[in-house]
Amino acid sequence: MILVTGGTGFIGNVLVRNLVSLGYPIRLLINPSTETPRLPPGLAVDVAISGLDDERSVRASLKGVRTIFHLVGTESRGIHYDFERVDIRSTRILAELGREMEIERFFYLSHLGADRHSAYPYLKAKALSEAAIVASGVPYTILRTAAVYGKHDHFTEVFARYLRAFPRFVPIPGDGSAKVQPLWVDDLATCLLLCFEDAKKAFTTITVGGMESLTVEEIFLMIMEELKIQKRLLRMSPVWHRQLVIAMEQWFPKFPRTYFWTDYLAEDRITGIDVLPREFSLVPTRLSRNLSYLSERG
């Protein structure tokens, strides 16, 4: 049995579909909520309802589980993040319980730039979560990913809504020259599956990214081209841009939740262009050729 946290989210949905298609039994660990969970339609999966910080319930959900994919995160919540509880504490609890119950593999998604000394709260939280996993002693594989894109993502689709939120001038952080390495969600799912099937990937941390190193400005221009809109990009000090995003998210509940990206895009977030071909014999999909989902209707 494979336990997946965040299995109803953007990345989790794609991974779960792949695992089910390969015949693996799946259990989704879902946080209690008044909202109906967005379960992957048409898939036979087991479901356990538990808060990730409820040790007793989490232990019960791990009965019969041999592998954990821990995908839950808070970057999509904007200013309403809870890094300490959702990212750090829940990861520590899950990893320690995994070790206690002799889980064979523990997979975790982190971010490029994760550093316990980072000035950026989310990247610091990711590094502390990584450290908790390593300290637990559970056999782990950590993937430090570039920005992940695809239909229903929290990257390009958020940027598309951000572009539409401004009538003429669109503020961007800094001079727009910070570089990112977008990774197609299907390529990330393939990397996870290949790690799952390779015992030699245990006790390793791997950085993964796409085959294009693009500036923030280039990405915004690509999205505008796909959406067939024209707006001027207004370069803004990262500090002032961060304050603007915080204010907009506070004042306008429907404003795109871009708080995470104000920190992420403050510096280059890149790794080797050849990582996927070298580590996984995989040629990643180019962002520049794969944005058609942004202009789809419905």
Descriptive tags:
2 domains, alpha/beta, globular, UDP-galactose 4-epimerase, domain 1, about 40% helix, Rossmann fold, about 300 residues
Short description:
With about 300 residues, this protein is α/β, with parallel strands linked by helices.
Strand content: 15-25%
CATH level-two architecture of the largest domain: 3-Layer(aba) Sandwich
Order of helices and strands: EHEEHEHEHEEHEEEHEEHEHHH
Determine the N-to-C terminus distance.
35 Å
| Structural class estimated from helices and strands | alpha/beta
Largest β sheet strand count, sense and barrel closure: 7 strands, parallel
The name of the CATH superfamily of the largest domain reads NAD(P)-binding Rossmann-like Domain
Mean pLDDT over the residues: 89
Radius of gyration: 19 Å
What's the CATH class label of the largest domain? Answer: Alpha Beta
The poorly predicted ranges are none
Oligomer: single chain
Strand order of the largest sheet: 3-2-1-4-5-6-11
Number of helices: 10
Tally of strands:
13
CATH fold name of the largest domain: Rossmann fold
CA-based shape: globular
Number of folding domains?
A: 2
| Helix percentage range | 25-40%
Structure description:
The protein has helices spanning 10-21, 55-61, 83-100, 121-136, 156-165, 185-196, 216-227, 238-251, 259-264, 275-280, and strands spanning 2-5, 26-30, 46-49, 67-70, 105-111, 140-145, 148-149, 169-173, 179-180, 183-184, 204-208, 214-215, 232-236. The protein is α/β, with parallel strands linked by helices and 298 residues long. It folds into two domains: 2-148 and 181-208, NAD(P)-binding Rossmann-like Domain (Rossmann fold); 156-179 and 212-268 and 286-295, UDP-galactose 4-epimerase, domain 1 (Alpha-Beta Complex). The strands form four sheets. It has a seven-stranded parallel sheet with strand order 3-2-1-4-5-6-11, with helices on both faces. A two-stranded parallel sheet has the order 7-10. The longest helix is centred in the N-terminal third of the chain and has 18 residues, at 83-100. The mean pLDDT is 89.
